[in-house]
Amino acid sequence: MFTILTGSQFGDEGKGKIVDLLAENYDIVVRFQGGDNAGHTVIVGDKTYKLHLTPSGVLFGARLLIGPGVVLNPKVLMSEIESLEAEGIEANLGIDAKTSIIMPYHIALDELRERGRKEKIGTTKRGIGYAYIDKFSRDEVQMKDLTDPALLEAKLDEIGPAREKAIADLGGDPSVVRDPVLIGEYLEIGRRLASRVADVSYEINVALDAGKKVLAEGAQGAFLDVIHGTQKFVTSSFTTAGSACANLGVGPARVDSVVGIVKAYMTRVGEGPMPTELKDEVGAHLSKVGKEFGTTTGRPRRCGWFDAVLAKKSMYLNGYTEIAITKLDVLGGLDPIKICTGYELDGEVLDYPPESTVEFARCQPLYEEIGGWTEDISGAKSYQALPEAVRNYVERIEALLGVKITIVSVGPGREQTVRRG
Ligand code: GDP
Ligand code: IMO
Ligand code: MG
After folding, report:
1. What positions does the entry give for GTP binding (predicted)?
2. What confidence tens digit (pLDDT) does each residue in 51-92 have?
3. Lowest CB count within 10 Å: 19, 131, 234, 409, which one?
């Protein structure tokens, strides 16, 4: 069985929590895109794990894979492996030989370019965009190259000068490209990771042939997608469900289900348009109660009402077969609750977002209102036990999306979840 799980908004929908929840039933959990710009939180009991690269199935001992469509910072991965080991958790992790490596010069270029932009993107400064540029220009260092000093040296001889020039042109220090200390650190990590190098496409296809269950864990969210998102305020990878097949080398006919993670309201970290953003006390409530600070950068996330116009587009982009809705508990105490069901753009009413980011930025949200609740729902044990107003909200969103909501999350903990048949 092959399941793909993706974020349906601007990232941070609670993918980590839901992957952890589902992982018990899967043999393999695999990341297929993005890098350590992702921050996926898993909370079990009094322990919190913030995972940037390790797939969120790690606590169940699933086979974990990092696919060749990921851009990998080996230092971040190594420190994640070490922190998990310190907690007594052994990650059974394989990394595809073709995975692109984020080199120190990618991080330098990301920082320098962002600094020089008049209109900033607000990237995580993890070198993501520049690592993908090098993949697509066929100038990347791959995981395999890290395991052999001769391969890495030959690669840097070939691609180093152009990167040194690019850094110097942006006013940076080009010595980062061939810095012997940094290269030594990378090679040492390569040596330690060598036994984990894998062929992810082969491993997944063989597992599926044997009747095993594979869960592909997306990073970011639909509107951070480099094609379908709100360019230029996007990440540099393909974040929608179809990308899992292409990036992992698994045929689309093998997909059994596609799970969308939907936060009960909107958040966005970094720049870019967000029609339902609230800068009032409701926004402050969502930020405070939802603890909306970036898992990777610690920046405050912008908050706003649920946007069903964007959600509809996300249903199309991903073809979800089921939905998990998260953070419903955070809406407690707000009355009424608003749902954006349309936009007004230049005097016209839209029920679907415009393609152009410039036009999207001018869209004004049109809201419908629904009754709120004041009860604390974070200990709910069943869907039926939830207050009627909560169920009304869930079922209204379900009707707007046209896809069954099967999982309702009412708190960050693994057990703070109710299933719907
Ligand atoms: P991801 O990037 O999609 O994995 O999401 P993040 O981990 O970056 O952000 C989601 C945050 O919300 C994390 O701190 C989670 O622990 C937390 N969270 C997830 N589900 C719920 C929920 O239902 N209620 C509350 N209050 N917090 C949640
Ligand atoms: P998870 O997987 C939220 C945002 C950044 C910035 C833009 C581009 O935790 O949901 P990048 O560093 O990727 O070039 O930054 O994308 N961004 C995220 N926002 N959640 C994420 O990941 C994100 N990964 C990148 O804030 O606006
Ligand atoms: Mg996150």
Report:
1. 11-17, 39-41, 301, 327-329, 409-411
2. 999 999 999 989 999 999 999 999 999 999 999 999 999 999
3. 234
In this prediction, residue 295 carries a pLDDT of 81
52 lines ligand 1 (CB under 6 A): no
The CATH number assigned to the domain with range 262-419 reads: 3.90.170.10
Structure tokens at 332: 């407690």
Q: Place 297 in a pLDDT band, splitting at 50, 70 and 90.
A: confident
Phi, psi values for residue 50, rounded to 5°: -110, 105
Residue 109 has pLDDT above 80, yes or no: yes
Is residue 40 annotated as part of the catalytic site, yes or no?
Answer: yes
Task: Write down the domain spans for the chain.
Answer: 2-96+196-259, 100-194, 262-419
Query: How far, in Å, CA of 93 to CA of 95, rounded?
Result: 7
**12 is known as an active-site residue:** yes
Fold of 100-194: Adenylosuccinate Synthetase, subunit A; domain 2 (1.10.300)
Minimum-distance ligand 1 atom for the alpha carbon of 16? 4
